[in-house]
Amino acid sequence: MLNWYFLWVAFLFLTFHCGLNAKEGYREFKFSITHKIISVRAVSDKSVFIFTNFSIVHFNGVRWRVLKSGIGEIKNADTDGEYIIVDVKRLDKDFVKPNFILMRFNGEVIIDEVKLEIPMTHSSNSIKFVSRGRCIIGGLFEYCFISLGDSIRYKIFPFSERVFILSHYTTNYPYPALVFNGLYSIYSLKLPHFSDLNRRDSYFVKFFDDVISGAVKPEISKLLDLDSIVSKFGNFKTVIPYSRGYILNFERGGLGFVRENQPFVFEFIRAVSGISFVDVKNEYITEVVSAGGDVFYAVLKTGEILKIEISGGDIVAKILNLNVKAFHILCSDKNLFVIGVNEILSVPLSEIDKFSISSENKFGGNFIFNINHLHFGSSYGIGASDVNGDGVEDIFIVDLDAPDYLYDGRYIKSPERKNISIESGISGRSWEKNKIGINVSVCTGDINNDGYEDFVVSYIQGSNCVYFNRRGYFRDVTKELGLDVDMRRSEHVSISDVNCDGWVDIFMTSFEGSNRLFISDAGNMFYDRTLESALLSDGRTVCAVFGDINGDGYPDLYIGNWTGGNKMYLNRGDGTFVDFTLESGTGGDLLMKTNSAIFTDFDNDGDLDLFLGNRGKGNKLFLNDGSGRFKDITVESGLFEPQIFTYGCTAGDFDNDGWIDIFIVYLGGIKLYRNIGLRNGIPIFEDVTEDYIRILERGMIDGYNTCCVSSDFDGDGDLDIFVSQNNGTSFYLENLTCDVSKIKNFIKVGVKGVRSNSDGIDSKISLFRNGELIGTRYVVSGSGYASSESKVIHFGLGDVLGGDEFEIEVEFPLVDGERVIKRVKVKPGQFVQVYEFDGLKAIAFDIVKFFKREINGFEFKIEIFKIAFLIILVLLYFYLYLNRAFESVMKITNRGRILRLIFLPVYSYVILRILISISFEISFQPYYWISGERIYLFNDVIPFAFSVLVLFILHFNFKRRLKIASLRGGLYSELIARIEEFGHSAQKSSILTRISLLIKNFDSADLEFERRLIELLNEYKEIVQPELESISDISEILSLDFDRGVVEKLNSEISNLLKKGLGNNLSREKILIPSLILRLYEQINKLREIVFSNFITQVESSISDVLKVLKCDFIKFKSNGENAVIFGRDDFTEVISIILKNSIDSVSGVESPEIKVEVLNFDGYVEIHIVDNGLGVNSGSIDRIISGGFSTKPYGHGFGLSYVKMCVRKYGGEMKILPVERGFYIVLKLRKAVVKIKN
Fold first, then answer.
1. HSE-CB for 864 with a 13 A CA cutoff
2. pLDDT in tens, 1223-1233
3. Which residues cross the membrane (predicted)?
């Protein structure tokens, strides 16, 4: 029997590590508190209670032992030394309701345990005994008085604010009161005043009886509104009464003092005497307790203990050197109990000042998180992304039944932090367009490669929503992209370049239908390729994540299902998939209920491992062997906890030791698993939640946690965490690792795709230390549960030595079978941005992407439609208004120039539209971008009006040109006739010759000679000068080379001579006028040569030349001499050839083909008659043939006779088609030249 006794003692020692280690001044008990501490209570020096989330621990003055365990997860608890009340979390559908258990303790063991039925609407936030058998419970907008004894009596009172923390109750201040805090205010619940402490319990018995019976109404008064202070220093954690007022402990490291009849006083701990710290972040206070009077003890986030004394107006603080990292403290009447990791210290208050004072921070090197509350709501998916391009990660949080939240990352820890989702156009479909919809998840990524992060938000009902981002403002483009598809409860979206074309594709899950894969067409249109990709499913999917599991460069897909097992799909490289679940070994249990999934490299071997957050049968960790085959190492790694029902998860190196850790959120709590390295090739994890996440706000954190993401949001080098809650307060865990250690043992990497997608999604980033691989990360969009991680890659480096050299290797995504790999040297503490291409090559790829995006865009299609309409309008105008005359202009004037003029209204529209777009981009208007509303005045009306104005200008310009064109046919003839007037024997030529001769031989003494010369000069003015000016004008109109200056100079000299008289004025003119007349003859002869060689054709000779080329013996040509017509030789040859070739084709099927050509000479014109006995043309088709574009021949283009007609009109002639019974009869009437010119 004695042996059994010793065995039992040994068992207790080994189990609870209890022991007494007496040291000078205090006692140390070796006892490990392995669970989260909920609350503590020191009833006396020999009765101290510690309530953890799974047990009740008691100290009897000699040893610590576990009184109770196995009752479930405890949310709140307190005791008066005899009665114990605990609120145990429910795991059923009524989890929000309280589950109170009442126990009785006899000093040794718990002797009684009953369920305490109190109909509060929500579970408790705080339980506090104020006297023996008298307790107050704070809940959600209510509080409850409870009286325990022979019977259990209670009364519930509603309250306007949420009751969070009930204060520690003490009796050594003048006006006893129980102080509790709501959201932003402090309230005092007045308790009975008593002078005899021995009769305290009897006072409370009567007071509670009166309150519960209704005889007395609780007196609650607001002590303080803290809206402005809370916004600056964070929410206050606890309220501690002291002799002259109250102390407030703020979450951002300060203490507030409310003194009786004095204004509110606030001071940082760093400001009090006796403390010297570098960074105020190292002085955050996690817990404050009262030791009576004006003495308090506080725990800093570093684990050190601070003694605070208020003496007069001074506040003095000292750090106690107890060589223990404290997590909690509590005071009895005589002792301070310090709860550490593996020990509990009992320090007599009377001996406390004997310990030395130290300002050294001895507990750095581990990661510690500080909590910051965000907002209350029903929040789910979280997206981490730089939405406005300022280089700072912003946060988007989806809310089920309220506007979504978008926080500017620059102000995430600032009192200026506010929700900007509504003004940014991303508040949610139900709030923007009054549609029914409950949004759940968000996925971020640059879908259209324009440099801005776009959002995809999933919905329980209807289609998901896609938002294009421009400068931090969002527009719903779901319909424009072809994604307006009912997804039947979509809870997750993932983005990846599935077909490796440089544009990301979108995968959407469905719980009640099939998942869908949408393939991108240049980011502006998506096509459902689910069936072709072999990804059709029958529902039940909750999450999905892309990752290259076998290292072939193609993104594979893992799908987490609620039931029926999960699926792993291998990408074949062409955008199609094959089921690889069985081979990969990742299918899991049929009832695993996978809620979240992460691909990352947990063992630092360079390939993707897989972590699953499950809501049935525990989480799973699969280790990849590099080929895409996995091994379940959940148990070996230390992650097997089947009682945890995980919602969201995120992974990252939170302590910067070089190994990726895991953070999960679940219904009722959070957990942080630290990766401590490999053991037998397997990464080992330990639960360090209680060590490094210091949480007093139990009602806040232990709620309906849903999603989480991690990134270095504050830019200090360590990974922070955002957590969302449904029907609770979302919060931000600020990682203080780098703040505490002061070591820059991290590297951050951003990747920028150029040929590949802009975000570099699917990139693989490897880190090498001195040439050895030490870590691998992947850029993923859409992982965990309903969330999207940051695309800024973070590496922890562990211990960094002076000679270490680091190098980053980035493998960019495959595009068309090619992959770019870049290596960059980096230094610890550096952020490096790696671009796929640099310089001109990058610019070229950007331009190609720009045009692909714009050409496929909806706006571009609208512009193409408008431009096409404008072209049709312009062409229709020219056709209807100018009709035949336009053809003349086309032939006479430079054809390319005329075409440019025709399309000038189109050019003007395009240029003005581009300028307007550039101006809009410079003066960006968020309203129009968000709403998609067109500014019709600038986008449509002004450009069109300007184009019409240009069209009117062209109209008048063409009228002038048409007038000239209509004259040109006669001008050729007129010009030739006028030139001939200066022939050898012509009158006008004779006048010029005689003037020149007389001036050269002028004799002033011969009056008859002078008279004859004056007569000739006057004849010049009347007869020759008008002719010369007409030749000049016609030459200019016809753009012929003729020096008009010679004529003007000659006219001027002769006019001066007549005006001044002959006399002595003829000396200079004897030389000048004859020389001008000689130059004039040269100009006329040159002009004659140009005109005769280009615009006068000998009809019979030219027709004979054409017949020689055609060599047809059935063509009969009849001529009546030689005739010259005004017609360009080349044009004449072309016209006759076209007519004769048409006739030859027409008679090709006739038995006795015959074509007759006859030239008839008339007064002023010549007619050319051509008639054949071919098949001919019916009268109804003649007009169509002449108009152009119509042909009776199967291979004809229909423009031959149209050209003939245009050419004939160009030279002032006419073309007629005469009716005949058989064949085709055409007549050309051409202007006759004045003189025959030999060819």
1. 8
2. 889 999 998 87
3. 864-882, 902-924, 936-958
| Multiple choice CATH, 745-778+790-840, 3.30.360, 3.30.160, 2.60.40, 2.70.98 | 2.60.40
- C-alpha pair distances (Å), 48 with each of 39, 298, 340: 11, 18, 15
Q: How many residues does the chain have?
A: 1239
Structure-token pair, residue 769: 């230390």
**746 touches 737 (CB < 8 A):** no
Q: Is 3.40.190.10 the CATH classification of the domain at 1129-1231?
A: no
Closest CA to 1227 of 1181, 1130, 1162: 1162
Q: Strands, E, within 562-634: which ranges?
A: 567-571, 577-579, 594-600, 609-614, 620-624, 630-632
The type of residue at 857 is G
Asked if 614 and 620 touch (Cβ cutoff 8 Å), the reply is yes
Cα angle for residues 461, 442, 496 (degrees, 5° grid): 110
**Identity (one letter) of the amino acid at 781?**
S
Give the pair of three-digit tokens for residue 775.
Answer: 């870590």
Do the Cβ atoms of 291 and 336 come closer than 8 Å? yes
Query: Measured between alpha carbons, how far is 18 from 649 in angstroms, rounded to an integer?
Result: 36
- CB of 189 closer than 8 Å to CB of 167: no
Q: Using the 8-state DSSP alphabet, how is residue 1233 labeled? A: P
The DSSP string of 160-178 is: SS---EEPPP-S-SSS-EE
Cα 874 from chain centre: 40
Tokens found for residue 950: 């240009």
Block residue for tokens 């055609």: 1110
Beta bridge pairs of residue 561: 541
Q: 896: which 2 tokens?
A: 């390319």
Question: What is the three-class DSSP state of 851?
Answer: helix
Q: Which residues of 782-820 are buried (b: 16+ CB within 10 A; e: fewer)?
A: bbbbbbbbbbbbbbbbbebeeeeebebbbbbbbbeeebb
Q: Which of 162, 165, 189, 191 is nearest to 176 (CA)?
A: 191
> Which pTM does this prediction carry?
0.58
Chain segment 20-76, per-residue pLDDT in tens: 344 445 666 766 676 778 888 888 888 999 998 888 999 888 888 889 988 888 889
Q: How far apart are CA 618 and CA 609, in angstroms?
A: 17
> Is residue 1238 a contact partner of residue 1096, using CB atoms and an 8 Å limit?
no
352: left (phi over 0), alpha (psi -120 to 50) or beta: alpha
If 0-12 CB within 10 Å is exposed, 13-18 middle and 19+ buried, where does residue 455 land?
buried
Beta carbons of 534 and 552 less than 8 angstroms apart = no
Q: 762: left (phi > 0), else alpha (psi -120 to 50), else beta?
A: left
Give CA–CA dist 76/1191, Å, rounded: 96
**How far apart are alpha carbons 409 and 43 in whole angstroms?**
46
Give residues with Cβ within 8 angstroms of 399, minimum separation 6. 377, 378, 379, 380, 405, 428, 439
pLDDT, greater one: 743 or 303: 743
Rounded (5°) CA angle 781-786-790: 35
Q: Which residues pair with 820 in a beta bridge?
A: none
**Which of residues 1212 and 1215 earns the better pLDDT score?**
1215
Domain boundaries, the chain: 277-354, 745-778+790-840, 1002-1110, 1129-1231
pLDDT tens-digit profile of 53-63?
A: 888 999 888 88
The values of phi and psi at residue 1051, to 5°, are -60, -40
- How many Cβ atoms from other residues are within 10 Å of residue 531's Cβ? 11
Residue 857's φ and ψ, nearest 5 degrees, are -80, 155
Give the whole-angstrom CA distance, residue 431 versus residue 245: 46
With cut-offs at 50, 70 and 90, classify the pLDDT of residue 180: low
Cα three-residue angle 504-508-509, rounded to 5 degrees: 150
Distance CA 692, CA 672 (A): 9
End-to-end CA distance of the chain: 147
The values of phi and psi at residue 291, to 5°, are: -105, 15
